[in-house]
Amino acid sequence: MNTNSDGKQLRCRLFDPVLVWMAMAAHSSQFVWYRRLSVLFSRYTYLNDLHELAIDPSLLSQEGEDEDELPPVKTIEEDSSSPKFLLSNAQMVALREAVLPIGLHHRPWKRIYSLSRDGDSFISFEKHITNWNAKFGDSSTLLVVKTTKGEIIGGYADAIATSSPRPGTARSCLFRAEKDGKVTVYDGKQNSLGAFFEGSPHRMKSGGLEGSSKKILLDSTRRIIAFGGGLGMKSGDGFGLCLEDGFSRGTTARCEAFCNEPLVDGNGGVFDVLDVEVYGFVFGRF
Question: How far is it, in rounded angstroms, from Cα 93 to Cα 187?
Answer without folding.
Answer: 18
